From TrEMBL:
Annotated PANTHER family: CYCLASE-LIKE PROTEIN 2, KYNURENINE FORMAMIDASE
Protein name (database record): Cyclase family protein
Record InterPro entries: KFase/CYL, KFase_sf
Length: 203
C-alpha cells in the first residue's frame, strides 16, 4: 500500500506570519502579438507552504541515496501540553539513515489557522539524540518540530547537522510505526533554502 503524506499548499494560506502566501494566476505572454499565449504563474515563500524540507541553505544538494530509505514513526499525539522528551520514545527502533516521523495528528486542525499555529513540539534533547544517531531526516505533521522561537533554533541546528526537518506532513495516522519505505521527492529548483516535496510511504 502507498500513502501520500504530503500536505497540499493552500492558496492564500499564511503558514508563517509575515510571509506572502501561495498565489496562482493566469498571465498572457507576447500579449497583442501573433505569438500570444496564456500560461500559469505561481509564487510562494518557500517556508510558507505545505510539505517542505528545510535545508536552510541554497547550497544544499540532497543526494539521490537519501530520497528513498526506510522509516519509523512515533505516535506522540497524546502529548500536547509539553515538549516530547526522549523518555517518551522507544529509542530501540531508531536506526541510522532512517526517516523519523512524529505523529501529533495536528494536521486535523489545518483549516483552523489559530489552532494549527499553536502546536506540539519536539524537545531539543530528542533532536540532538536523533542527530547523534545520524538519521536521514525528521518529519512532523505540524508547522515545525519546535514551537515559536524553538522552531527556528531546531531548523538551524538540523541544517548545520545535515539532517533536515520536514514540515507540514499529513496522514501519519494511516501509516504503521515501522517496516515502511519512504519516497521523498523534492522539487529541483535552484536557489532555494527549503524544498517543496512530495512524500510517499509504502508498506
Amino acid at each position: 500500500m502507498i500513502i501520500d503524506i504530503t500536505q497540499v499548499t493552500k492558496l492564500d494560506r499564511v503558514y508563517r506570519p509575515g510571509s506572502p502566501p501561495l498565489k496562482v494566476e493566469k498571465i498572457k505572454c507576447f500579449e497583442g502579438t501573433k505569438k500570444e499565449y496564456t500560461t500559469t504563474l505561481f509564487s510562494c515563500a518557500v517556508h510558507n507552504m505545505g510539505t517542505h524540507i528545510d535545508v536552510m541553505s541554497s547550497d544544499v544538494v540532497l543526494e539521490n541515496e537519501r530520497l528513498i530509505s526506510p522509516g519509523i514513526k512515533f505516535d506522540v499525539s497524546h502529548i500536547t501540553d509539553r515538549p516530547v522528551e526522549l523518555n517518551d520514545l522507544d529509542v530501540s527502533h531508531i536506526k541510522e539513515g532512517h526517516f523519523v516521523f512524529f505523529q501529533t495528528n495536528w494536521d486535523k486542525y489545518l483549516d483552523d489557522e489559530e489552532k494549527y499555529n499553536i502546536h506540539p513540539e519536539i524537545s531539543m534533547e530528542v533532536i540532538k539524540y536523533l542527530v547523534d544517531k545520524n538519521v536521514n531526516m525528521i518529519g512532523i505533521d505540524t508547522l515545525g518540530l519546535g514551537y515559536s522561537r524553538n522552531h527556528g533554533l531546531i531548523d538551524v541546528f538540523l541544517g548545520k547537522s545535515g539532517i533536515y526537518a520536514i514540515e507540514n506532513l499529513t496522514n501519519l495516522d494511516k501509516i504503521p510505526k515501522k517496516d515502511f519505505r519512504v519516497y521523498c521527492l523534492p522539487m529541483k529548483i535552484e536557489g532555494l533554502d527549503a524544498f517543496p516535496a512530495r512524500i510517499l510511504v509504502e508498506f
